[in-house]
Amino acid sequence: MSRTMKNKAKATTKKENKSSKSAAAAKPSQGLGIFARAQQPGKKRKADARGKVAVIYTRVSTKEQADTNQSLETQLSTCQEYAERNGYEVVGYFGGTYESAKSDERKEFKKMLDFVKKSSHKIGYIIVYSHDRFSRSGTSAAFIADGLRQSGISLLAVTQPVDTTTPMGMLMQQLYFSMGHMENHQRRERCTAGMVAKARKGYWVGGKAPMGYDQYKVNGEQVIKPNKTGKLIRLAFQLKAEQGLSNTAIIKRLKEQGLTLYDQTLSKIFRNPFYCGLITHGLLEEDEVIEGRHEPLVSRDVFLRVNGLQAQNPQGYTQVKEDEQLPLRHHIKCGSCQKPLTGYEMKKKGIHYYKCNTKGCCLNRNASKMHERYQDLLKEYQIDPALLPQVQEMMGQVFKKLSQENEQEEKRLKLQLAELKKRYETLERRYAYGEIEREIFQKFGGELKAEEREIEASIEKLSGPLSNHQTLLGKGLKMMLTLSLSWRNSDASKRRRLQALVFPEGVQYDRENEGYRTIRVNSFFSLASEISQKMGQKERGKSSCETDFSPLVVRRGIEPLLPE
User: Fold this and answer.
1) Which of 20, 138, 373, 442: disulfide with 49, CB 3.0–4.6 Å?
2) Contact (Cβ atoms closer than 8 angstroms) between residue 156 and residue 87
3) Mean of pLDDT values over 474-492
4) How far apart are CA 52 and CA 54, in angstroms?
5) What is the pLDDT of residue 188?
6) Residue 369's domain is classified under what CATH number?
7) What is Dmax (Cα atoms) for the chain?
8) Do the domain assignments include residue 46?
9) Which band of pLDDT confidence, cut at 50, 70 and 90, is reported for residue 116?
10) SS3 category, 152
């Protein structure tokens, strides 16, 4: 930077600082600090005047990245160069370590926000490498950025510059936050797909093996075998099935032999089909049971006999097995205890209810009213038919960008796969010539083959839904025109598929507000409805949506639609 430019930057900074000192300081409200300011009705709060004083925040997601990746160094140097080039005075550095941005409860992140709020420097800018370095929490990140903006503090993403003093700049920033949020979900789904595939081959993917088993690897393969505790658990099954002893009596017998269990733990063990050689998992389809690779502790006959003794229904009402009248059963979770709601029919009146079975919770609601509120929730994610062409064009840009990035990722993975195959051939040749022992060949050869399988699965996934994105896009947006009506007019089976598609993790019911809270919304529906709403606002303001949206550059991470 030349001496003239530096003098100009200093003069500008002094002028802005002088202006900021003369501005009246607004008092923050209780609780949210700088993110929520008291406002008078009908008046918009004016941001504090601040100079070109900034802090820099950098982060990576994992310890491994912090230890081995140069990303932190790159982020810091890029942000410093940007600050120097544009005349910003940097008074603080934060982050510089690994912190997951899935939530905003991060130590360094909160420390940075606290510093910005309390500092006497009148900080006006937070400089980050990109928006996803600031946060990947989607709407929460947008809320924080908006609170900062109202306090006169701007978020500057060096590699993704946007002008947040304009409505379009604010929308683009929100889209960047949304894309980072969606990328997290896509990564999780890729990991989930691998776990599902593994579970369907009979492997245990639930972390540590259930009580009574030891878990280890032999030549890279998972091995799960019963241990001493397992023998006592087998005894517990036998005592229940053959002698019909109570749980209390069984627990006493086990304690005499050195195993201490509580009644709740023993009941869970009796209900777990893992002990008879079967695997079930929340990631699998409902009622899907897989033959496990592990050694069972008891026969299926014994397991069924034990659970026949365990099955009781002390509540006195009839449990509805089919979901024709209660399609939201298990899809809705209690907002207080987070447990899925079940359903029942009051036969005398022929009325169905949703109920939380948690003791003392007492959530019990009429099914018809719950269905009406659910239809209202779906309406929030419908798009205006008049805006369909514009939304389709904008979403097309998203899918086009995703397709391009998928192609690049596929090329990278294929190169990596070819390199792994070469390494395996070299290892195989060395074994054939007697240069390495059989055990070493099996160990490292197994690891290489496992890596190959993982990469092949990733390549197969990349060539999936996005390969024909125009058809997928048209199908998804057409569905969004009549979400609520489609749900109301469908049978129970189609309703469940639609529910799982829009809200993959279900919804929570807030008894205080008598309404639903979403846990996670399929990012396709979330982004399309947000674009539709923003375009609707632009239409009412009589401005050009096409001109405003044309420069948008979309980042990777949208979730594909599930098949019907």
Assistant:
1) 20
2) no
3) 88
4) 6
5) 61
6) 2.20.25
7) 94
8) yes
9) confident
10) coil
Do 124 and 50 contact (CB within 8 A), yes or no?
A: yes
Beta-carbon contacts of 477 under 8 Å, excluding residues fewer than 6 positions away, are 383, 388, 391, 392, 395, 528
Query: In this structure, are residues 83 and 1 in contact, taking their beta carbons and an 8 Å threshold?
Result: no
Q: Check residue 48 and give its pLDDT.
A: 53
Rounded-to-integer distance, Cα 226 and Cα 466, Å? 44
- Strand duo 507-510 + 515-518: pairing: antiparallel
Q: Compute the distance between CA of residue 109 and CA of residue 96 in angstroms, rounded to an integer.
A: 10
pLDDT digits (tens, 9 = 90+) for 392-446: 888 877 777 766 767 777 788 888 888 888 988 888 888 888 888 888 888 888 8
Contact predicate 224/293, CB 8 Å: yes
Question: The tokens of 555 are what?
Answer: 């980042």
Which residues lie closer than 8 Å to 58 by C-beta, 6 or more apart?
72, 75, 76, 79, 93, 94, 95, 96, 128, 129, 133
Of 468 and 351, the one with more pLDDT: 351
Site of tokens 């006959």? 301
Angle at 550 between CA 548 and CA 552, to 5 degrees: 95
* CATH code for the domain in which residue 64 is found: 3.40.50.1390
Q: How many domains does the chain have?
A: 4
Q: Are residues 474 and 405 in the same domain?
A: yes
The alpha carbons of the chain give a radius of gyration, in whole angstroms, of 29
CA distance 188 to 168: 30
Same domain, 541 and 426: yes
Query: Which residues have a Cβ under 8 Å from the Cβ of 14 and sit 6 or more positions away?
Result: none
